[in-house]
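Field: COMPLEX_INPUT
Field: COMPONENT_COUNT = two
Field: RESIDUE_TOTAL = 977
Field: MODE = joint
Values follow.
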Amino acid sequence: MAERAALEELVKLQGERVRGLKQQKASAELIEEEVAKLLKLKAQLGPDESKQKFVLKTPKGTRDYSPRQMAVREKVFDVIIRCFKRHGAEVIDTPVFELKETLTGKYGEDSKLIYDLKDQGGELLSLRYDLTVPFARYLAMNKLNNIKRYHIAKVYRRDNPAMTRGRYREFYQCDFDIAGNFDPMIPDAECLKIMCEILSSLQIGDFLVKVNDRRILDGMFAICGVPDSKFRTICSSVDKLDKMSWEEVKNEMAVLLQTPAQAGEEPLGVGSVAAGGRYDGLVGMFDPKGRKVPCVGLSIGVERIFSIVEQRLEVLEEKVRTTETQVLVASAQKKLLEERLKLVSELWDAGIKAELLYKKNPKLLNQLQYCEEAGIPLVAIIGEQELKDGVIKLRSVTSREEVREQDLKSGQNRDFNIYDGYFIDYWQKWSGTTPFSYKALELNPVSPPLEAAPTRTHRLVFAAFT
Amino acid sequence: MAERAALEELVKLQGERVRGLKQQKASAELIEEEVAKLLKLKAQLGPDESKQKFVLKTPKGTRDYSPRQMAVREKVFDVIIRCFKRHGAEVIDTPVFELKETLTGKYGEDSKLIYDLKDQGGELLSLRYDLTVPFARYLAMNKLNNIKRYHIAKVYRRDNPAMTRGRYREFYQCDFDIAGNFDPMIPDAECLKIMCEILSSLQIGDFLVKVNDRRILDGMFAICGVPDSKFRTICSSVDKLDKMSWEEVKNEMVGEKGLAPEVADRIGDYVQQHGGVSLVEQLLQDPKLSQNKQALEGLRDLKLLFEYLALFGIDDKISFDLSLARGLDYYTGVIYEAVLLQTPAQAGEEPLGVGSVAAGGRYDGLVGMFDPKGRKVPCVGLSIGVERIFSIVEQRLEVLEEKVRTTETQVLVASAQKKLLEERLKLVSELWDAGIKAELLYKKNPKLLNQLQYCEEAGIPLVAIIGEQELKDGVIKLRSVTSREEVREADRKAKGQRMYAILAGPCPFKT
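Field: COMPLEX_OUTPUT
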């Protein structure tokens, strides 16, 4: 024990010597020598169990997104962003941390939930708590009078998870705001339209948007005889919304969701999946002259929506694909790796999503199994006989039926719609729109058109997928 | 002054009283009363200039992305992600910070550049420095044996911007990795294929991918007589050959790093060589190098790699370069780096210079660092230097004076006379419901000219004009904003669908 402690001390001293030499910019040779000594000492110390804890967890209140969760997330964001773009919104992004001063005094009691960065000799920084204050800073900094923007990013709050079960400390916010002086209620109406479009497209159940107005509330309390000092208390008992400046909010909206409760499933209950309102004191927080820019906006509670969608998929036992691969290039016999590599490369060059197993001589059954697990719909099988005949067999993975024998030499382009049907079906489940609307939404084409003349199977597969 | 200080003290005490009451869960009424008192005191304090500094900046080394920059970023990511998906990669995401312990001991000297979070009584945290260590943690945590994944996210490094001009402290990394035990060099070849596809699609100029192997480097140094303890430092000298001449590099090795001149000369014979697969074959015949077991392994793998690269059609873009010695210590096999051959240097424009836009390699020992049993999962991957690519693309757009649209709006719904707001709202709503990207001005009675100007500024290609006469006739005029010519008269009764047919045709958004 004492020996170990002495060794550790030696290591520490040697480490300090090395650092000292580097600071003095001593000769590289000398430094290298001392470093080598240090490494030898460390090696003597051997593996230190107490130091090499295998820390296999994410920080409290945070989580990784697995490919499956990312697939859900991607689809949800796709619906949301599509809607924002449909309404002509620009998009911005801001740093994950702000100067501590920027956030100070903006969140009242909640300020204690802000993550601070360690003072490491530079500016004092804090992780952003929401996207609204960065937005206000952005507007003031760029002296903007008007903008219609959305911003989707993670924010950070040191919530105590014990109190608020399931509440994450790192979570996505999805904000849309229209800033500027306009004729009354037109942008406000558009925000509500956007909310409705998004919630309809997400197909997470019927919903209701509750609307009120702070001025009506205040007026109502006044004529009912509520003392001024009690206004906030009375209000906050019904308030579930997350606001940065409660006094500033002129009207409030809450979107309540009634989810279809499944057998045995605990209904998510009445809960807000989106909220918003008008708040005119925004830029005034930051503008030296107190210049105000009226603002109306909304925030989509995506984390909640992720859960709902994930839950729904589980209940429906729907398989979520985590890749978009259209065809696996497989071989029926051994020693066909070269041919596989060549074909898959042609498919990639044609913009088709293709894979191959990283094995020189994989078994056909394993390759088919890989397709089934990953949900890959087509498999292009190269076999010795087919090579001689100049064809490649294209099979549907689910039916195992041959889709078409293609003549390699003729390179004729034939169309069929196996994948087409699959794709539209897949899209419909997510967006609730018809194929017509699918085209109207202008999804990017599955593969870009090919410049070089396609030959062989890639043309066939290409035809299948466009 | 003293009065102010006293007031501030009162405010502080009252604040504490309020907090205390809340903790004790006193009656809401009592709390409200004390809060009102607190607010009155604060009001007396008045606006405090020293406290209300208008801090209008982002932290050092970070920046906002304006809509224009986002448009560039979106296009670049679109090309990259499309390529990753084409190759069947899944995508993951990890938290922006990790437990400090997770990052400790992984970055060597660079550890001092890690952003730590303040100890606020909970776990000690640090912002992620790259995406590779989180990846290794993810693999070990989920006990995964294989995965093909990409991850695009920002990472954080407390670089000193004075030393490395233009280096951001918050910047995007774009990683793609294949983890798992597979037949040799197939995934490695696919990584190089991906790199080439991406760089071609981005159209930022001709590029070259340099390839080398850590085992060849180590073996080469060994047979040249480099002492073990000097490997790393000699490596970093050799790596400078892309920026410095051999003479300068040799001087550094001999003069600064104490390498014997004969040894340096021997190294020089090797590291100045680069070429295709023929160089690999030549070195396989090299009497000294072929005696070194490590180098031999590396050379054989490279030979196989080149075979696959030829089948992938990219061997003309690859150069086996013995001076490539880049990167972190965790590479164990093939290493590669893509450089642009020429940035389009226009008159007066300073070329970005020789710089890498993508890099990667094989690293087989990383996951073992996290696994309790030291279980190894071999990995090979690449990282695209997107920030550099953003600059290049932005620069190119400026030179070409190309206008970048920041919205995708296809049609503005406008009115020619007053009192047509209702009709505009109805039509724009129909368009939205049909999935068409449309806008209207938030004005009851906007002037037509202003609406057209709005279109021109935003790059909106079409304007649907509602006028009293047209309403009577049951039509809507659709005009091209640039030519001012009528595109078509659309039948109002068919709602948005006819108009859609026009809009769905040529894509107005420049791709």
